[in-house]
Write a structure and sequence with these properties.
This is Integral membrane protein. The chain has 46 residues and is mostly helical. The protein is 57% helix and 0% strand.
């Protein structure tokens, strides 16, 4: 993948070739990571 001029990914991430169970684990991991980032940002902001 590469960055486009406006700062977004030029190509979307293609997870079609990934096993559905693995894809679900990846998406769950991303969701947990987002919660962790928000929690850390809230803790640092206080």
């Amino acid at each position: 993948m590469r960055w486009s001029v406006d700062g977004h990914w030029a190509e979307p991430v293609n997870l079609d070739y990934v096993n559905p169970k693995t894809r679900n684990q990846i998406m769950a991991g991303v969701l947990v990571l987002m919660f962790v980032v928000v929690a850390v940002a809230a803790a640092v902001g206080q």
